[in-house]
Amino acid sequence: MKSLKFETAQFSGMRNEVRQLLKKAIFDGIYEPGEQIFEAELAKKLQLSRGPIREALLQLERESLVQHVHNKGWFVIQLAPEDRSEITSLRAVLELLALKLARESVTPHQINALRKILKKMVDAFEAGKFAEASQADFEFHQKIWNMSGHHNLGEVLVKITTPFFAYYKMPKAGDYKEISETRRRLEADHQLVIAYLAGETDKTAESCIRNLFGSTNFENWSRLLDLIQEK
Prior knowledge:
The model is unreliable at 170-174 (pLDDT under 50). With 231 residues, the protein is mainly alpha-helical. β2 and β3 form a beta hairpin. Strands 1-3-2 form a three-stranded antiparallel β-sheet. The protein contains ten helices and three strands, in the order αβααββααααααα. It has helices at residues 15-27, 39-46, 50-62, 81-105, 108-126, 130-147, 151-167, 176-198, 205-213, 220-229; strands at residues 36-37, 66-69, 73-76.
């Protein structure tokens, strides 16, 4: 049975609490892509009936983190290289739209909130807490999607990108040079996004997106951006 961290006395068994617990376990790598999640074992571990477990798994299925296979059970989603490539390309286009919409109504309070999230991400990265850094990165982008004011756009971005953030692999703990370079690049790229939203740079939204995605191994995201910018 997986070692899930929680305090029984503080655990009320609501489905959202179970969902958050399982989601964290997936982000932290306790559950690996393709691994089965057993309802009965979870119910016993959490001292719950299987109802809240099943409801939480259904919620995670809507977030594209798990899937139910008939007659087999629940499994953590696995992303093939082509899946990650398509997610990256679609996300780049939708992020561009969200960024432009967010700038139209951004407030100083929202800018400060983004700076705090970025600091949390950098601090976690420097502490070697890469799963926490990845979650903070996701929180940063989700904040912008919410700021766009386009509810459906935000929902689509959450659905397609949650698996990507959950399985994104940070540098290995022993590779100091790679860790340092990745942290520096991530901080600079996210600072540029904040500067764009705050009107503190002459860089375009397209430039921000190209910086954010420039280090990926997938090329089709750039082609999609080129297509939507063609006159």
